[in-house]
Amino acid sequence: MGKSWITPFKKQCFVTLGVSLNLSSHGLTMGFAAIALPQLRQPDSIIPVDDTTGSWISAILGFALIVGNFIIPTVMAKYGRRTANILSIITMILGWFCVILATNIKVFLVGRFLKGCAMGMTASLGPVLIGEYTSPKNRGAFLTTISLSIAIGVLFVHSLGALFHWQIAALVCAFVMFTDLLIVLYSPETPTWLSDQGRYEESEKVFRWLRGDTEDEELKRMIETSMIVRESKAEVKVEDTFSKRMKANLAFFSVTIRKREFYKPIFIMVHIYTLSQWAGANILAAYTIDLFTKVIGTEVNIYLMVITLGAQRIVSNGIAVYVIKKVKRRTMLLATVGINLFAFLSIAAYSYLKTHHMLPYDHPFIGIFLIHIHMVSIATGTVPLPFIIAGEVFPLDYRSLAGSISVFFLSGNFFIILKTVPYLFKTIGVHGAYVIYAAIVAYCLVIVYFFLPETKDRTLQEIEDEFRGRPLSPEEVKSTQSLTSVKHNQDRRCSSPVV
């Protein structure tokens, strides 16, 4: 009776906090480049950097994301979600301490690479953890903490940069992650994974600790499904030799890639992920100070502008959570990307006219206003929508493979854009770079306009049938269920949080 005030909802808040703090490290890591690079460029810096070295500090995260994405699925499946979460946090802490203790650029880059690996891990892990921890009635609200946590991380580290040296800021970030590690150590393993491992008593105990006694039907279905899946695994004769497994995998892949419900969503998501990366979110996070300085000048308090922009991102992100529930996916994507293109071209025109002293009237507020319009388009559309759409267009049976192929392009674009920003700003200016970004985003938007179906309020099966051009026949449904039942159930659980 003494502990009755600790309700299941509060327990779900506690475990979600452990996930959200880990996800905030995305914002901390991205935003840290914006405060560290200007200080590292100073003549008295302990690690002197030029534009080329600075671009590697930002862009190396792109390579590391791929490594993290490659590592985490095996850890999640074999050792559990909680263990994978702990691994990602420890990797992030090691990365921060490499940065803190760095006296040369090599150690600094090692730290950034480790942090990028941790980001790659949590990108896949975070939604799965929240989905398996939380009740369906609260899941949507808890999932909104993902993008909100990232935005808060960016604002927090930018605020630190305005007050402290980059090493002190890195130490504070490491402390935040250590606090997160303590929360996760006191969090349980997810009941879904425990059930998948045949540990049904532990699964039931954790489920009731998290959810109480009001969701017994879901608990019953989860355990029954896990039992069926485990029995199916035991009955299937797994090929023993490596060559036979390779032949089977190649045969499966050769058939799969010819299916329209497989390659069409990948084609669409490659363009949507490309759009999201070139729309400017990473530029505004990693090169915030550089952008404000080049567009507005130095006559204003740059750090105050950076903090204000971060705060506006959080507000816009909160607005997006409400709007996404009301507005169709295509409508919202077309509208926000349209605003994004307007912001790109307006900033390019303003920067060009200002550089060539052709403005009849100029005031810092004009540049500040245009950059804030750019951030509104990013926070309300080009950041949250791609991951929601990805959760809706990929067929359940091929979600892991299709998602991995698409994320590879996301990581590649992530690297390219951050690596080239300093070069483009220096050679063709902000106006030239922004025209190129606008052209890439416009091309992707045209592809999305013609190929992306509306997905809001439609079942995953309806969306898959539209890509296929017809519904599955009863024989195909039966065949698919018998051949991929294990993977189907696994992907269904992992995909639900993102939808």
List its traits.
single chain, 499 residues, mainly alpha, 22 helices, 82% helix
Task: Give an overview of the whole structure.
With 499 residues, the chain is mainly alpha-helical. Helices cover 82% and strands 0% of the residues. It is built from 22 helices and no strands. The longest helix has 33 residues. The C terminus is likely disordered.
> Largest sheet at a glance?
none
Low-pLDDT segments:
474-499
Distance between the termini: 38 Å
Count of strand segments: 0
Total number of helices: 22
From the helix content, strand content and strand pairing, which structural class follows?
A: mainly alpha
Shape: globular
Give the helices and strands as they follow along the chain: HHHHHHHHHHHHHHHHHHHHHH
User: Compute the gyration radius: what is it?
Assistant: 24 Å
Percent of residues in beta strands: under 5%
Average predicted local confidence, pLDDT? 82
What's the helical proportion of residues? over 70%
Quick overview:
Helices cover 82% and strands 0% of the residues.
Task: Record the SSE blueprint.
Layout: H1 8-40, H2 51-79, H3 81-101, H4 105-133, H5 136-143, H6 145-163, H7 166-185, H8 191-196, H9 200-211, H10 216-235, H11 242-256, H12 260-278, H13 281-286, H14 288-295, H15 302-326, H16 329-355, H17 364-382, H18 384-393, H19 399-427, H20 429-451, H21 460-468, H22 474-495
Helix pairs in contact: 1-4, 1-6, 1-7, 1-9, 2-3, 2-4, 2-19, 3-4, 3-7, 6-15, 12-18, 12-19, 12-20, 12-21, 14-15, 15-17, 16-17, 16-20, 19-20
